[in-house]
């Protein structure tokens, strides 16, 4: 009789255990999700609880990287010229803007209740906002000055956002495609130069700039190797200076719908350039080629640049 009672009691306990285990699992999952993690970033130590789900991106590179990982930010900044990069437009449908790159709205950011804010840590106007932004959510700083930095930063962000495998897969595929394009190109047989025009005049990208690093990787001889200011990867020059360099191919970084080159083309020196004479001036989208600096931008630039370089070899 006693043995039967113990057997019955044991059966009841086992049944309760079976019922309680599934209930305990979500609690364990919640506990794991809220685990504090520490990452080393350009802004120093980043402490995060759980995995961020509501991300606000204040830089195009940050927006690009988040989208590359298959996620959507809950808010992002548009460029100072009021544009959204064409290649990101469809992926950002329905996502509200929090203002322009150089003037994001703290009120709009706070209203979105983010659990992570991504900034460009080299922009002075972003740096100045860090104390206020940190009152809203943890702040991560990303800025890629080369395609390699963009890929390395994607791996870090993938870890932060719980997308390590996705980030690693993208990076591996990027380097595979880069290697494939390199095999189709001749070594340093073309001298190239990239530039854009603004109110200050003609600005040439340096060889250590984001797109400069891609041209070099694609075996082009990037023609401008002078260094600018510490925090700048371009330099304002005269058209006479470009004539001295006289590259084989000129890449003009322009904004769609704007006649950025009108004043430059009116200068008599323009027609003396080798690239102009040989019809080797190529206009490329400035949002993609210089403003974005993200991993997806790097992938698209490699494809477009390789196609152009092969055309003129």
UniProtKB/TrEMBL annotation:
Localization per record: Cell envelope
Gene3D superfamilies linked to this entry: Nitrogenase molybdenum iron protein domain
Coarse class of the protein's main subcellular location: other
Keyword Iron: no
Chain ranges of the Fe/B12 periplasmic-binding domain: 54-313
Signal peptide: 1-24
Origin superkingdom: Bacteria
Family statement drawn from the similarity comment of this UniProt entry: Belongs to the bacterial solute-binding protein 8 family.
Name of this chain's protein: Fe(3+)-citrate-binding protein YfmC
Organism of provenance: Geobacillus subterraneus
Classification of source organism: Bacteria, Bacillati, Bacillota, Bacilli, Bacillales
């Amino acid at each position: 009789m006693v043995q039967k009672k113990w057997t019955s009691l044991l059966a009841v306990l086992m049944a309760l255990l079976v019922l309680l285990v599934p209930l305990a699992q979500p609690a364990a999952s919640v506990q794991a999700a809220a685990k504090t993690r520490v990452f080393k970033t350009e802004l120093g130590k980043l402490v995060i609880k759980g995995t961020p789900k509501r991300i606000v991106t204040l830089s195009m590179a940050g927006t690009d990287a988040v989208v590359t990982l298959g996620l959507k930010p809950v808010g992002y900044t548009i460029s100072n010229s009021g544009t959204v990069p064409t290649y990101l437009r469809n992926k950002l449908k329905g996502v509200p803007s929090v203002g322009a790159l150089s003037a994001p709205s703290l009120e709009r950011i706070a209203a979105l209740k983010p659990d992570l804010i991504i900034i460009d840590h080299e922009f002075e106007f972003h740096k100045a906002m860090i104390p206020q932004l940190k009152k809203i959510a943890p702040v991560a700083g990303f800025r890629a000055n080369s395609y390699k930095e963009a890929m390395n930063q994607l791996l870090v962000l993938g870890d932060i956002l719980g997308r390590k495998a996705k980030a690693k897969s993208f990076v591996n595929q990027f380097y595979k495609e880069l290697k494939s394009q390199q095999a189709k190109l001749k070594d340093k047989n073309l001298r190239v130069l990239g530039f854009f025009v603004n109110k200050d005049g003609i600005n040439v990208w340096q060889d250590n700039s984001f797109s400069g690093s891609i041209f070099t990787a694609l075996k082009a001889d990037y023609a401008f190797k002078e260094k600018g200011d510490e925090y700048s990867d371009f330099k304002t020059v005269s058209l006479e200076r470009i004539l001295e360099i006289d590259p084989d191919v000129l890449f003009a970084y322009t904004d769609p719908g704007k006649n950025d080159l009108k004043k430059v083309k009116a200068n008599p020196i323009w027609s003396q350039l080798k690239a102009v004479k040989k019809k080797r001036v190529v206009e490329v989208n400035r949002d993609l080629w210089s403003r974005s600096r993200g991993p997806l931008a790097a992938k698209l630039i490699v494809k477009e640049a390789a196609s152009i370089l092969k055309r003129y070899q």
